[in-house]
Amino acid sequence: MTTDAAAPARPEARNPRGFADRRGRDLIAERRLVQRVSEVYERWGFEPLETGAFEYADALGKFLPDADRPNEGVFALQDDDDQWMALRYDLTAPLARFAAQGWETLPKPFRRYAFGPVWRNEKPGPGRFREFVQCDADTVGSDRPEADAEIIAMACEGLRAAGLDAGQAVVRVSNRKLFDGLFQAGGIEDAGQRLTALRAIDKFDRLGWEGVAALLGEGRLDDSGDYTRGARLPAGVIATIEGFLSSVADEGLTRAGTLDAVARVGGLGEIGEAALTELAAIDAALNAMKVSQDAVRFDPTIVRGLEYYTGAVFEAELLLDTVDDKGRAVRFGSIGGGGRYDDLVARFTGERLPATGFSFGVSRLASALRAAGRGDEDAVRGPVVVIVFSDADMQHYLDAVSELRNAGVAAELYLGRAGMKAQMKYADRRGAPAAVILGGDEIAAGQVTVKDLDAGRALAAGVSDNEAWKSERPGQQIVPRSELVATVARIVKQARTAS
Amino acid sequence: MTTDAAAPARPEARNPRGFADRRGRDLIAERRLVQRVSEVYERWGFEPLETGAFEYADALGKFLPDADRPNEGVFALQDDDDQWMALRYDLTAPLARFAAQGWETLPKPFRRYAFGPVWRNEKPGPGRFREFVQCDADTVGSDRPEADAEIIAMACEGLRAAGLDAGQAVVRVSNRKLFDGLFQAGGIEDAGQRLTALRAIDKFDRLGWEGVAALLGEGRLDDSGDYTRGARLPAGVIATIEGFLSSVADEGLTRAGTLDAVARVGGLGEIGEAALTELAAIDAALNAMKVSQDAVRFDPTIVRGLEYYTGAVFEAELLLDTVDDKGRAVRFGSIGGGGRYDDLVARFTGERLPATGFSFGVSRLASALRAAGRGDEDAVRGPVVVIVFSDADMQHYLDAVSELRNAGVAAELYLGRAGMKAQMKYADRRGAPAAVILGGDEIAAGQVTVKDLDAGRALAAGVSDNEAWKSERPGQQIVPRSELVATVARIVKQARTAS
């Protein structure tokens, strides 16, 4: 075979737009996160499910979150039998298809968790990818408020397992039916008007009451001069919403206290009252599961942008002040969310099937943890590198590598053909905690030189005179060959503890 | 919101053709397999890499294994900037793109492992999917035979970690240049003729020498009456190949013995002799790593169907006699393979970059392990189920579930609305080792009933009289409430040991 160096055009090696490669420490950190959350979810009785990357486009439906347009934003292609298939844009739509397909044979209620890539055919940008990993947990077939409470409590424990301490995250909970009831009591029947109003309320956090009031009324002119048409609700309904939102501004309220405050405002109608009863049952279950008032709060300003939620809605928020690479403060805000959606399976079967779930973006949570200084990527070290001098001594190098691996120490033989200096640089770039040097002299003397690379770096940093550094050989020790494994293991353990 | 029950057409809930859902025990078994192999690969110094699902079609190239046709067999679509993208069909092509793209900044040699789905747009059939999970390990940038030996030895240790004992699998190794040399020495320059000849030799295992000889010569009429045109090699070259293959029929030969036998046949030319030297160096490294003669054999009939291999080639074969679901004997044959490919990165850069790797199909290996009775899916049990009687006692049920989870026992509360009998059936279908019963009487007496479901099944099987079974309540015990966790933990531990 010959290379195609003479071929007219060589392809350029590049990622497709919006697709990224992930490797090494970041990837290991993300996998650990998923592993830890999975252990929690399995302990809570949720079984793993993996569906295929493709769904038929009609089965996928138009429930793309954050987009109201049907079948936009997905990667679709036509199969050779002319049926349109599309890559999943989330893990909920495939679950709905799976549950509808196999409902007769599934244990009911059906609890499952899932993680894996989802794809969105959107304009890529900095930090905005067209493929990313989500992690979901859902219970299908239970209308009990305890099912919502379980998902919420499990989400809290999952975030804890991922590395967030108590007080570093809060799950805010509300119920979409609070507003359904309020709209019905206020005579607002138009679905578009309701959606516009919910979107306005969703911005309470950012715009405050004045901005929201404008968007509930005629419309709002923002600072940039853009005009957003409002929901045009009657003044009476807007006043009720005002009382409603202001009643819950007190962050010191318990969950039960918030429910009392909302109830006192009134004007919720029959549906809204039912929503309060559901929230009270969720509160009782959360209390029974000893979920603290700080970990889960009730907050009626949480509406979630999605059209498909039908009851309780949840949003997990990072409370930590985080900094970016340049040390600037970053507000992470939402790191996950979910809620009750009782209509998704009905698309297939025509029959309502109660369902509730929680979802988070894996990379986003990993970034949040990293930014919060809670990532443990630093603890992920490269393998110990055994330096190669002479092909004739290969047996000695391979023996050393094998012994280290058999002792559970990640180790590798340098397999390039560069000299000592380049090999030390290689070990450094691999994040190796130690390098093992078996020169001819060492072998003849039954010894081995072990270089503690962290100690070497630390010592080198404290020594200004370059000649002194060279002569001192910081972090380097010569030990009997039989003490190789013990010596390296000690260094690796220190490296792990230190970082 | 209303359901779309009245909508004209509801989509049918179905998987796209050739795409499967995987869940529960099988999925857990596959993940454990990948986890165990990953631990080995990381201990050997291979770092994880995940590339995106899509590659640009030109970057993906026409190296689809087992298909000589360019750009066929992939799922491709045109991006909105008119560039064609395709889902990866293996993990090697994306690695070549990644290595070419970032070569300057990577530690060299670059070792990486990867696992994830790959997609092939082929006709689906029973057991033949269009999406499946592969697991690969490759070293890019080392021309050393020790790099091949390392991949081979690591593949052996990976298979061992996955659950195959010594003697249950063998990695057969050869070198494509043996035949390159033989062809060159025999004056066979035509690439098509060479490929046809290699394909014939690849069938030695199945057809024996007579069939292969026909395919190396004019052609072969098989039992079904189909005629396959042969490579039409000169008789002298065919005779050399015969001596070559027959010299290695002795399964008792060591790796060094096989090399000697091949060398004695002669006619290998300069390139073939170089191949023998490479294999001898691989043997030396395997011996240094204490890889037994049974675990890795040299076998010149191994050619691998792929066009892109340029040196050493490996094939991992399951040696176990396995049975299928119906108890019929199954020959699994190849469960993975790989080799040296020095031209893949050159597609992008014009410069040869040495590379070597090993790949296996995760589901296929899991099936092999299952068929060989080595799968441990049976050890994967469902959660303990806490039965629900009355909403008023919810606090008691939730307490029990929390206590069990906090003790590390997977547990769940039944969250449907069915009665006791249906709940016990549910627990059974979930594979629960135990059910926890907290009726009003138990709660009042400060007690709890724990049902050992395995013991219950076993006892029930031995009791013919249904009335007796009911009265004896097999496997059921009433203990003080304070002993719940200890009692359940004991049952769960027994269930794990027994299965």
UniProtKB/TrEMBL annotation, chains A, B:
Catalysis performed (reactions): tRNA(His) + L-histidine + ATP = L-histidyl-tRNA(His) + AMP + diphosphate + H(+)
EC number of the protein: 6.1.1.21
Xref: InterPro entries: aa-tRNA-synth_II (IPR006195), aa-tRNA-synth_II/BPL/LPL (IPR045864), Anticodon-bd (IPR004154), Anticodon-bd_dom_sf (IPR036621), His-tRNA-ligase (IPR015807), HisRS-like_core (IPR041715), HisRS/HisZ (IPR004516), HisRS_anticodon (IPR033656)
Keyword annotations: Aminoacyl-tRNA synthetase, ATP-binding, Cytoplasm, Ligase, Nucleotide-binding, Protein biosynthesis
HAMAP family the UniProt entry points to: His_tRNA_synth
Subunit record text: Homodimer.
Protein name stated in the entry: Histidine--tRNA ligase
Species this protein is from: Brevundimonas denitrificans
Upper taxonomic lineage: Bacteria, Pseudomonadati, Pseudomonadota, Alphaproteobacteria, Caulobacterales
